[in-house]
Amino acid sequence: xxxxxxxxxxxxxxxxxxxxxxxxxxxxxxxxxxxxxxxxxxxxxxxxxxxxxxxxxxxxxxxxxxxxxxxxxxxxxxxxxxxxxxxxxxxxxxxxxxxxxxxxxxxxxxxxxxxxxxxxxxxxxxxxxxxxxxxxxxxxxxxxxxxxxxxxxxxxxxxxxxxxxxxxxxxxxxxxxxxxxxxxxxxxxxxxxxxxxxxxxxxxxxxxxxxxxxxxxxxxxxxxxxxxxxxxxxxxxxxxxxxxxxxxxxxxxxxxxxxxxxxxxxxxxxxxxxxxxxxxxxxxxxxxxxxxxxxxxxxxxxxxxxxxxxxxxxxxxxxxxxxxxxxxxxxxxxxxxxxxxxxx
Length: 344
Description:
single chain; about 350 residues; alpha/beta; D-Maltodextrin-Binding Protein, domain 2; about 40% helix
């Protein structure tokens, strides 16, 4: 009798596991994340200062890391359920195509090729990235054209290579590209004098200059090569997952727009000033149900990681060692390009 009961229990257990697996598959990546109880998110195979780096205690930190933690909190209720996977620039697309990661949050430029040919889809931009050139100060370059014939170091496997090539060809400037897979290798080459200049994302150039043995040895030239919208990337067809991501970004921006921070969110939830804030903080039911989440998901995100401005400030802004101005990444009502969607 005992053996028979054990067999029945085993069959029931297998049936439950099969049903759970089937349900997760039916719900796509979002279902898999919930079943696994962790979010597989991109880190870096070296260090992308200010966005994905490992601190002295061996902990991941940076703007993109905080966005991963915000997303894990929205879906699973805790930032600790974000599992950061070290990955190179070139590996990020094969990794998500193969299912080794759930999402790319790695200052990934939204381009037509990536959007239409790689089986991927993008969220709304969560960061606006300007591209600049930084040169050795002793060259005295006032514009990029002054660097004609020079050697430019760039990150391999990024849009920087293509953006720089297009700009140089359009403006008739000759140059020699020198590509590096890791940021540490690129910075070492620059500091050692192997290149005359580097092209790249504005925040990356600023952090590279800050960390130079002598920051005054390098000058960021004012010419803007291009603006690039940075989006969060999922596999094509994961519309439910993308909905969660888009509204997570909106929640961070909406919280900042309404002055809601990790410190005052409880007080504001107890006395919400508007119907929008009631919906945002889950006081009015339904804001989570539509996304397959708990109604207090946005409250949990804000309470845990703060609003967009708080994340920016402590990772790359005035509260960090990089002290990068918000610029175009300010809210629309403060001179920037970022704005929340309408939460109705």
